[in-house]
Amino acid sequence: MFADLIIINASNIATCADNQQGAGIIENGYVAVKDGRILEAAAGSPSQNIINSDTEVIDAMGKTVTPGLVDAHTHLVHGGSREKELPLKLKGVPYLEILKMGGGILSSVKNTRDASKEQLKAKALKSLNQMLVYGTTTVEAKSGYGLDFDTEVKCLEAAKELNGEHAVDIISTYMGAHAIPQEFKGDTQGYMDFMFEKVMPYVADNKLAEFLDVFCEDGVFSPEESRTIMQKAKALGFKLKIHADEIVPLQGAELASEMGAVSADHLLAASDKGIEAMAKAKVTAVTLPGTSFYLMLGKYAQARKMIDAGVRVAIATDYNPGTSPTESLQTIMSFACFGMKLTPEEIIKGMTLNAAYALDRQQEVGSIEKGKKADLVIFDAPNVDYIVYHYGINHVDTVIKNGKIVVKNRQIV
Ligand code: IZC
Ligand code: ZN
């Protein structure tokens, strides 16, 4: 069998295979691709038996190959931006205080309701292009800036259409439980009933989202309310995610474990018991160190403790207009390293295989192993450590999606 494409002479290949230590590094090797899938990856040179005149050969001398990056937590589709809140933030007004004043998420809700689907798609498309150029080939996208029926559906449809139109694969999450909209102010139960009766069945029936996520936080949804929402979601066939223990410790990690969530995200204030429960229930931790930085919280999720406890730790951007306005997982690598003290190999695995686990896509993407999707990034860096060490710039040279070159010399082709 002849390969369609082979990357040769790669100085490092981070396979991120599950059974390997660290990022499963192969030195001086090649990766062969056939029919959009990984054919083989190994040290040395490929056998001439898999190369013919139709095989495209890329020389990656001095470069590093990783799986396509997987961004397991973003709020991709939204209207507007929140740079006007910077002075408030700098004055020290807390995030949850700005939300209480009708700003924060609720100001993004207004902008999202005011935008047409085409406008939302155009804005999200720009972000998807940025992501791709920075090496992301799979992204999770939450709704949650509409809250009313029409706008939630508009945002989920926008994500679904973009998934069909753009190289980046989009996995959708319904997050109506992101805030209580102004029209239900003081009536959280009323808003929950509205979601249960009107929105969730429609989203499930029309396959607009695979996951459901809840913002379990002081002043947003209590642990009891979050549990009820998750139970309803489960009954409708949604897989579960939860914004857990982001700011105030509310035993969100324990709740995620009890409910069998696929992931629990944020976890800055997770308890030791919660971390143990996650290990036992095999809930993937999605850490979002860019958000810790941006909220100036002065602390990060205890990723080392989680890894030592046997929790699978993913790392994502949390791309959103309020607490992490960046599409770049490479930027987040710096915070994961210097904030959470993770090693570059742990970081790469956290943004590939472990992130795939957080999206229940571990069979399809996240590692360079025979049969998986040929989603690959060639970084202009001699090793994985260098990508993290030399921070603040884009090291991507080439991105391959489903076996096809989609970014070359940092440009979308
Ligand atoms: O828009 O503030 N934490 N949701 C929960 C967010 C941050 C996004 C936002
Ligand atoms: Zn989030």
User: What is the structural class?
Assistant: alpha/beta
What's the CATH topology name of the largest domain?
Answer: TIM Barrel
CATH architecture of the largest domain: Alpha-Beta Barrel
**Number of structural units classed as domains:** 2
Low-confidence stretches: none
Q: How many beta strands in the DSSP annotation?
A: 17
Structure description:
It is built from 15 helices and 17 strands. The protein has 413 residues and is of the alpha/beta class. It has 2 domains: 5-68 and 366-412, Urease, subunit C, domain 1, CATH 2.30.40; 69-358, Alpha-Beta Barrel (TIM Barrel). The strands form 2 sheets. Strands 1, 2, 3, 4, 5, 14, 15, 16 and 17 form a 9-stranded mixed beta sheet that branches. The longest helix is centred in the middle third of the chain and has 18 residues, at 188-205. The mean pLDDT is 98. The structure holds 2H-imidazol-4-ylacetic acid (IZC) and zinc ion (ZN). The site of zinc ion (ZN) has 5 residues, from loops.
